[in-house]
């Protein structure tokens, strides 16, 4: 009995959803910041507006999926904490630091999920398939049936874990060594580039898995199935 190829599961899931997630999660707060600055707001209130937009994005995602998991609740708490600390200290950099902390902890969660063999990348895949119950069921089936499928998602969790931790460290260095306006833009550029590289690697790996699934099995293997 041969194992079903890892790429045979969830083939209807659109990988373009990863790019949309990047645009909403990174691009929208950045636009809010510079719109507020163009309207004459201070760096503090502009960054506060961007933080509120990012927080509303988290709340909207929880409402859309009708579920608030532990990580979503944690991010909401950090958004609120960052705003309170900034208001108390008057230092808007706390809002940027909060973003780095969230990213670093997200990276550690990815790494922890890989170590526990419960990769968060599989959860992300299920979210991309939220409107397709059949694809969600296929992902669960793939996890149960295919060792290659499990190994592929664990490798991707390691990629995202190390990548998120590294980019958060780079952003933190920029925040405290450059001006606020520059650090907002540079932080966003680093984040976008890091996500773009990780998304490209993810898409390449998923496409490679799907290509193997589409390849016809050798005759001798067909006879064993």
Automatic annotation (TrEMBL):
Alphabetical keyword list: Membrane, Transmembrane, Transmembrane helix
Superkingdom of the organism of origin: Bacteria
Membrane-traversing stretches: 15-36, 42-63, 70-88, 94-116, 153-176, 182-203
Keyword Membrane: yes
Keyword tRNA processing tagged: no
Protein name: VC0807 family protein
Natural source organism: Flexivirga alba
Highest classification ranks of the organism: Bacteria, Bacillati, Actinomycetota, Actinomycetes, Micrococcales
